[in-house]
Amino acid sequence: MSKPFLRMSMVLALLAAAGVVGGLSGCATGKASLPTADALGAAGALPRGTDMDALQRGRAILVTECANCHRLFLPAEYSPEQWRGIVKRMANRASLGEDQAADLELYLAVSSRAGK
Amino acid sequence: MNTVPYPYRFRSFVLSSFPLTTRGILPFAVVLALFALCLGGPARAQESPPDPQDLKIRELEKTVDALEGRIDAMDRTKASLGGSWADRFTFGGYGEMHANFGEGSAPDQFDIHRLVAYVGYTFSDWIRFSSEVEIEHAFVSSESGGEISIEQAYLDFLLSNPVNIRFGRVLVPVGITNRKHEPPTFYGVERPSFDRVIIPTTWSADGIGAFGGLGPSLKYELYLVSGLDGSQFSAVNGIRNGRIKERPSLHEPAVTGRLDFFPFVRWPGPGGFLRLGASAYYGGVDNGNQGDNPGIDGEVRVLSGDFEYTVSKIDFRGAVAHERIQGAKEIGNGTASGIFGWYLEAGYRLFPESWKKGKLSKSDAAIFARYEDFDTQHRMPDGVAKNPAGDRREWTFGTNFYLTPTLVAKGDVQFRDDASGNDLATLVNFGLGWQF
């Protein structure tokens, strides 16, 4: 293996190790800040009758659509009221359908409330 | 004409600014420093135990929130289907202003680099128009470097999650920055040089294609678009000048697409966000403006991989691309038959939570380091001499200070080097960028 290739491989390995160790050591707040629908349910953060499938879809849209065009804003960074306005503005720009926007807004509102 | 694939070769980097003994360990030192900051610095989320007296109130608030969300969604549906004409428009934009300083004879300048307007219109709940019109460098004339251009103008036909149709001028979906280029979304005053020379952002093309989701964790884009003008390829700028921004020929169209995999959609992995992307572009190069084709027999193929990973307050990002140009010898201009480059970047958001009060309640700050290694003369056609100025490396160190999440002040320093032995000027840049 050539030295330059070895150097790039080591940089990559170190980046990966930093990320994994950071996550495992509790440095990451990801689990708490971007909760799954199941985690929200287990934490008792869901209003009665919440559509779990809609919550799961909402989380998927946040990760795949929103973060595709700008950095990932975590639910706790804004209040449910603020998210409502943000989703209203951004849904058209991201070509989200009405159902997708509703799922996203539901996930953000519930997760935002749970994160406070 | 060389059509035989060959193995990627990674070029050693040389930083004349640093002593020889420190060159090899410098990348590791930078990454280690950032990692140490992660372990020592980030404020952990404090999960305060719920106050029993507020439990009932919170439960009611949650229920009201959910109901309000549904009512708003119904309102939006009503607006999109039968709202007023004005309600169907969306407006937005972004911009960036830079101050660039260079060592020696390098120009010191103020540059209103980009001023961009988005306009969208919702024809129905499944047909939408989006556009992006841009002014670069403040002044446009036959003698200036400024330009006005339509970078995006397309109609989306939203049919189903797996298959939607897009028609018009679209962003070629290769790499990271070409699709995600608003100033608050990247570190550094200027876009990475990799994204100027290897993947020539902003790279638009006219055509038709499909996009959608193949399950919750996998997304795709696939387009048939207008091709590049091979006669404008060059030794140092690679394929960059081959973009046709006015009326591109459809003589030799191209196929381009990408796949993005999001492994943390289904399960909460280490960190909040991970995206792994692969993209490609393949097409002929006998294209010109207004149908004036250059008469070149050749093809260009671009293969690229990229990733973005956020774990706690650390952001990682990187991209690699290889380009093979058939007919490079016929094109001339010192055009290479192979172009190759990559970059890796790490940033750490270090703004203390305790400072996020008052006017700074939505502020953030980050430091970052980026290393780029790219060579527009990676492999040459038989009998064509290599121009060593195409073989470049760059280190960029800097900071982004987000006054709000979509308004950022930036500063950085860039150490540059190439294989020609010329002493490239160190650059210091300051900038202000926004998105709305």
How is the secondary structure organized here?
The complex is a heterodimer of chains A (116) and B (436).
Chain A: H1 3-24, H2 30-33, H3 37-42, H4 52-64, H5 80-93, H6 98-114
Chain B: H1 20-23, H2 26-40, H3 55-82, E1 89-102, E2 109-124, E3 127-136, E4 147-157, E5 164-171, H4 194-197, E6 204-213, E7 218-225, E8 254-261, E9 273-284, E10 299-311, E11 314-326, H5 328-331, E12 338-349, E13 364-379, E14 391-404, E15 407-418, E16 427-435
Antiparallel strand pairs in B: 1-2, 1-16, 2-3, 3-4, 4-5, 5-6, 6-7, 7-8, 8-9, 9-10, 10-11, 11-12, 12-13, 13-14, 14-15, 15-16
Give the class of chain B from helix and strand content and strand pairing. Answer: mainly beta
Tell me which protein chains meet in the greatest interface and how many residues each side has: A-B, 70 and 83 residues
Question: How would you sum up the global shape of chain A?
Answer: globular
Q: Give the radius of gyration of chain B.
A: 24 Å
Number of helices of chain A: 6
Detailed description of the structure:
The complex is a heterodimer of chains A (116) and B (436). Chain A has 2 domains: 1-28; 34-114, no CATH class. Helix content of chain A is 66%, strand content 0%. Chain A has 6 helices and no strands. The longest helix of chain A is centred in the first third of the chain and has 22 residues, at 3-24. The relative contact order of chain A is 0.14. Chain B has helices at 20-23, 26-40, 55-82, 194-197, 328-331, and strands at residues 89-102, 109-124, 127-136, 147-157, 164-171, 204-213, 218-225, 254-261, 273-284, 299-311, 314-326, 338-349, 364-379, 391-404, 407-418, 427-435. Chain B is globular and about 80 Å long. The interface between A and B is large, with 70 and 83 residues.
